[in-house]
Design a protein that fits this description.
alpha+beta, seven-stranded antiparallel β-sheet, five-stranded antiparallel β-sheet, 3 domains, 17% strand, 476 residues
Length: 476
């Protein structure tokens, strides 16, 4: 089987479908999946199965749009999908569960099928990503309507583990502080309605207690306020950001339209960081232990506007350092030089790489923030990118004239990955580099060729979460 052509997907981004139900969105996705199955080039036996699956997709599209939680036996024949959802027991397979299987199956085919060229394969990968996102919504929120309330409840719904048969309720004293909260009560009612289409208050006592316990645990996971700062600690942060000790000593680590926060907002951000990131045996809030007194922010287009934070502070010995964090709805991720944080970010909010500008921003974010031996693979698009690291500005400018280049999209490889050509600075070397990027945000360096190894720039190192410039005399 292979893909010689493929249909174009309808609008499946929930952001642009506000007001419709998840069932309607899933129905549109299933009709698209059916068109895709019909487009696959295959032999006679495989073609018959694909046609049967496409027929079931179209039938299930109507059913899941009307009633996601209704019994699928009203739509499926015993032989459909190889009898996978036929049972002689009392088990009910909801339309949403069958639809989820079909969307997952179509996404797997899109991912696995060879395509006639890299551009088509890339489109299939993007389409598979869209189907998986719709499937995720269908799995956790089958009875929901797209909009602000669903967005607000998504962290809770993702964390929720449904009870298993015979499960006993949690001891009340462990969750009373949560279940007594009226905000939680309203969220629990809405979440149960979204998941099962019924009212939580209508459940018998034991079942209600079990579900309330599960919802309370999920609530605690997603509303972890960390270790909140004391009033005295907050006052110290407020004083620090009102009277910063020094101007910013470096340009931002990632190019973009950064905003310096006013003192009140800066103190709030540092308080949030401090509640989730503490250091030393005394577990001091990171911003206080690191003498942080400046904050700037950059919305990440490649992650739907999630904020990248930089804060300037001092390490022992007085050297200035800059630490970075990413704020999501329910996480404060430290940009610690590894790639773990960006994979966690991709899992939490997904990379948004549909347009070229977002892809270029993602490349800049990844290459500037994921480090090897303390050093980044800094894209060199102009002299200004390296100016604050220069040990000899005139010599560096001359080198940049000969080697710097804007990151250049270079089409696709056979696997459907986007290709990019760029020059990076690592340690004191310039390298001509080729990168491959998947729609899921995985980057592979597929080519690197040294251009010069005597770039006059200072080295960087990580000191805890701070990025610090080495003194000129220690740079080799």
């Amino acid at each position: 089987m292979s893909a010689q052509a493929a249909p174009f997907a309808p609008e499946l981004n929930p952001v642009y479908r506000e007001g419709v139900t998840v069932g309607v969105l899933a129905g549109d996705a299933l009709r698209f999946a059916a068109d895709f199955l019909d487009s696959i080039d295959a032999g006679a036996a495989a073609r018959k199965k694909l046609a049967d699956d496409a027929r079931v997709c179209r039938a299930m599209a109507e059913a899941v749009a009307r009633a996601p939680l209704r019994n699928s036996s009203q739509v499926l024949a015993p032989t459909d999908l190889g009898g996978r959802f036929f049972t002689l027991t009392e088990r009910m397979w909801p339309n949403a569960e069958v639809a989820s299987y079909l969307l997952g199956h179509a996404a797997e085919l899109m991912q696995a099928l060879p395509a006639v060229n890299g551009a088509l394969k890339n489109r299939l990968l993007l389409d598979a990503q869209q189907l998986r996102r719709v499937r995720m919504l269908l799995n956790i929120a089958p009875n929901a309507r797209l909009g602000a309330r669903l967005t607000e409840l998504l962290p809770l719904l993702r964390a929720l583990e449904r009870p298993i048969e015979g499960e006993k309720p949690f001891p009340p004293m462990l969750i009373d502080s949560v279940t007594a909260d009226p905000v939680f009560h309203a969220a629990a009612q809405d979440a149960y309605r979204i998941v099962l289409g019924r009212e939580l208050d209508d459940l018998p006592g034991m079942a209600s207690a079990v579900w309330s316990g599960k919802l309370a645990l999920a609530w605690l996971q997603t509303h972890d306020r960390g270790w909140p700062l004391t009033a005295i600690e907050i006052a110290r942060l407020v004083e620090a950001v009102r009277s910063p000790s020094k101007p910013w000593n470096r340009a931002p680590g990632v190019p973009g339209d950064w905003t310096d926060l006013e003192p009140e907002a800066a103190a709030e951000v540092l308080s949030l960081i401090g509640a989730h990131h503490r250091v030393g045996s005394a577990r001091a809030p990171f911003p206080l232990a690191g003498f942080c007194d400046r904050v700037r922010t950059l919305p990440l287009r490649c992650h739907g506007g999630i904020m990248l934070i930089e804060t300037q502070g001092r390490i022992s010995g007085g050297a200035i350092g800059i630490a970075s964090f990413v704020l999501t709805e329910d996480k404060v991720l430290a940009v610690d030089g590894t790639s773990i944080w960006i994979h966690d970010l991709n899992d939490a909010v997904g990379p948004h790489l549909q347009d070229e500008g977002a892809r270029l921003d993602y490349i800049r974010l990844f290459m500037n923030c994921v480090r090897h031996e303390g050093e980044r693979f800094q894209p060199v698009e102009s002299f200004e990118d390296l100016a604050d690291r220069a040990t000899d500005a005139h010599a560096l400018r001359d080198l940049c004239v000969g080697h710097a280049r804007v990151i250049e999209p270079a089409g696709f490889d056979a696997e459907g990955r986007w290709l990019f050509l760029l020059v990076v600075c690592h340690h004191q070397g310039f390298f001509a580099t080729g990168l491959a990027l998947t729609p899921d945000g995985l980057i592979e360096m597929i080519d690197d060729r040294m251009l010069t190894d005597d770039v006059p720039v200072r080295s960087e190192r990580m000191d805890g979460l701070f990025v610090v410039l080495e003194p000129k005399e220690t740079t080799s």
